[in-house]
Amino acid sequence: MSIPYDESLIWIVVVGFIVAFVLAFGIGANDVANSFGTSVGAGVLTIFQACALATVFEIAGAVLIGYKVSDTMRKGILDVSLYEGHEKELMIGALSSLAGSGIWLLVATALRLPISGTHSIVGATVGFSLVCRGTAGVKWIALGNIAASWFASPILSGIVSASIFWVLRKSVLQSNKPFEQGLYILPIAYGLTVAINIMSIALDGPKLLKMDKLPWWSSLIIALLAGKFTALYVYVFVVPRQRARILLSSNGSDEKAAATTAAHFGSCQENNETTALSVISEAPCDTSNGNAKADLAPKLRGNTSESPLLMVAQADAENAQMDGIVDDDEQPEVSRLFAFLQVLTATFGSFAHGGNDVSNAIGPLIALWAVYAEGSARQEAETPILILLYGGLGISTGLWVWGRRVIRTLGQDLARITPTTGFTIEVKDYKLPHKLDVLNGFPVVRDTNYGIGRRLTDAASVRYAEGLDPVEYDISSAYGRVPCYVYRQFVPHYAVFAQKCLRFKAFFRQGVFNSPEEHYRVRHVDIIYYLEDDTLCVIEPVVKNAGFRQGKLVRRGRIPKNVKRDLFIWKDFNVGIDVCIYGVVYHIVDCDPFTREFLTSQGIDVGEKESLPADPYTEQRDAKCRTPTGITRALGDDPRRRFLEYDGMVLSFDATWNDDHYRVMYFLTDDTVAIREIHEPNDGKDPVAMLLRRMRVPKNWQSLPSWHPSIYMEYGDPEIVEYCTPQDFRVGETILLFGRRFLLHDCDAFTRKYYSDMLGTPQPDAIPVPARVERQAPAKYEIPPHIKFGSPEDTYASCLSFIPKPPKKNVIRQLANFPKKLRYSARMDAVHPEDEGRDFVMEYSLSDGTIQINETEKRNSGRREGCFLSSRLIPKPCTGKDNPEYYTPQDLFIGARINVYNHRFVITGADLFVYRYVEANSDKFCQEVRENLRDYFLQQGMLQDDVDIEAKKIQERENEQKLLADNIIAQNVEDDVNASKCMDKEFDMIGHKELITA
């Protein structure tokens, strides 16, 4: 068990708070937008209103219901009892979980990978526990329940969302009177929404509201009552107001739309024009059979490729799926009914998100703080509310900084959302993604089965996504005009061939000048042609230490193939031909299976596979390296090979020399030795701890006799025969390094493993290291006398360090006693006649021991009331200037004379708080002071209640003593009577015996 609030662990807490804030910032910038994106898209809320509501409800959810999830994250997954005695390890693990989860979220966001913050923090927590304590440190049942919820939640949420929309669709949208039916179902929707959310809050039981003590049936009753009152309020007040407001607005909008349509219809007839989308082709239609079919495939603008890459999907104007979508299109009156309900569901969704994801982000932070504050790994204290508030603020900051863009993207850029569909979507938080994504600047088709965060899309969104894209027809066709064209839908080739490319293997020869050994080099490349936009690039595999630029030789783009600026198309590539790209001739030798299949399907004969030629210089060099020569180095002496194998491997030994401790390090990379001295704090030694820098140490120093003086001798290279090797270092033996004999005491685990596995000579057991000789403490310098500038404490602080620091304040005393003050009335012991009759109020501050004197106003005295002496410590006279004694409450009593800088004051009175404080702290005051103050207040008649209470206690005590005395006397009388009866009985028995004897 560690020490609570250990200063050596404060850095972990500080770093943990920073990392947790960054993690909460990222979650706020991404996930919070899920709750209010559809509300903004439906036009119910502005972005500013959505951010404001999200901030309030995210923080409220984190503070009120976030403690349960945080308890699970910090104690429910791990067995914290295994970390008792290793609290620092648990704190570092919690910090690692925060950092790992945050880094992975940032990396995944940069790579556009849809991941979950909950999965990341749970995985990071389990990961560090497996490293620290293995499988025993994880509660696998709790982890299994969490993992099961990841699979069950999408399935159940999809079922609930689809059911809700199906009910709304059948009961409202497809009814004969959808507006009246919507008004009828509106109170039910309000009531159910409020009841479900209130039930979840009451059943969770936030401890801040003391609701954790409520039974489940009371939570159910509260939820039902809240839902019932909400439905009643909506039925009485909201429904009539909504009916009147929507009918008035719809009538005005209908008149405006009719005027606009008539004007536009007239202009179209005069100009004889039709308006159609540019991506929809037009062809003559045959109206005799009523079913128009086009004979020519539409051509995409800007496509100059002469190939059948343009796949056309024809569709009849009277397609059944399109009819279904048109029939289900919502009326404006129905959409407006669900506006406020959508805001309500979004706020409750944000409230739940704050209780869940905020706790996920700061769960390890709470564990880190609990271990730091308690000093124990069990974390028995409750979750701090301020840390939950800190996480909520982090998420809110991320929402305001970056989340506004995500809300705009989700609500306005993805799909058309109305309040009805928005209410259904927000109930279970599933959204319809956009159909086209952007890849390298070009739109591509996206899978609509998954929504934001890779979650399954709900049933209503799937139905909307599987339908054909809505087309804006010519307005004149809506008023009975016979159409002359049929609109056909097609899928462009950049959508059909998204992420599909042709890959060719090729090589080219590059000339090498001014080299007697190499005239040219053969370089192998991959030519990649992208079918989606007719671009290509040339990439060369990267080889380390090649000596020249590799990688992407030609950037992706549409490249001209001749001086006429004609562009390359896919027909220009085949196996066995040469292709000139920017003056470099590439010979294609092979292609991948997809490329071969595609070219064959287009009627092109693909050439036979050829072999890639090898580089002649590389072959010549490899052959030369494989040929043994007399000057070829052994593998063990090759510096490059040793660097690649042994870089970073160091043999470390603990040694002593001249009663000092050293660390001897042997570097396996180049057989060099370094010696570093191990310093202790404040040992007064040279701050540069390196005794010997990294160098090769000659071995023949061992031939010197033991009595030879230890000096440093300069050796030239010809004189050195061999150097120290790992075999020369043995624990328990002495090694001579440049005239200094070091005794090796121990080595680290890697060194022992290296000697056992690699050299086959295990190191002996460690020998104890002698304790350091305690050095005498340096003589203390005398403190110079006070120089009368500033307070004595400030002068003393300037003597302790070169840079003066202000004296430390008693923070605990300030927090405990602020703003308590003892007030006394005083008069000046006048020396001059003009000072007679001056009254003052003396205030003693219990938080810092300062005294402030204020003068009271007196009529016709010629003096105004105000501060006579500002708050400061007042020294007692004749106590010394270097170490003065200051006035304390023990020196302040009625009649006491206080000398304040040669001004004498006499205390004449005090307030009742002074007496209460003295009685509460009677052990700090002498008997005379207490009696002095008591007599004063008794004379003033301010302690009458205390006197009555004390007299009552005395009377009760006397009555108890009297009753006890009466009981004792009665008991004694009873004992005397019993004793007399016993004596009479004994006398009778004695007389009877004497009579029998006679």
Can you tag this structure with a few keywords?
single chain; alpha+beta; six-stranded antiparallel sheet; 20 strands; 13% strand
Question: What report would you give on this structure?
Answer:
A hairpin with a 2-residue loop joins strand 19 (897-900) and strand 20 (903-910). The protein has 998 residues and is of the alpha+beta class. Helix 4 (87-110) packs antiparallel against helix 5 and helix 4 runs antiparallel to helix 11. Among the domains are: 7-234 and 333-427, no CATH class; 498-614, PH-domain like (Roll); 642-702 and 721-758, PH-domain like (Roll); 812-945, PH-domain like, CATH 2.30.29.170. Helices cover 45% and strands 13% of the residues. The protein contains 24 helices and 20 strands. The protein has a six-stranded antiparallel β-sheet, with helices on one face. A six-stranded antiparallel β-sheet has the order 12-11-10-9-14-13. The chain is extended and about 140 Å long. It is found in: Cytoplasm, Cytoskeleton, Cilium axoneme; Membrane.
For the sheet with most strands, the description reads: 6 strands, antiparallel
Count of alpha and pi helical runs: 24
User: How many runs of DSSP E, i.e. beta strands?
Assistant: 20
Average predicted local confidence, pLDDT = 75
Helix content: 40-55%
- The structure class reads alpha+beta
Shape: extended
Side by side, the strands of the main sheet go 6-5-4-3-8-7
Distance between the termini: 90 Å
Function: Sodium-phosphate symporter.
Pfam families: DM10_dom, PHO4
Organism: Temnothorax longispinosus
Main location: cytoplasm
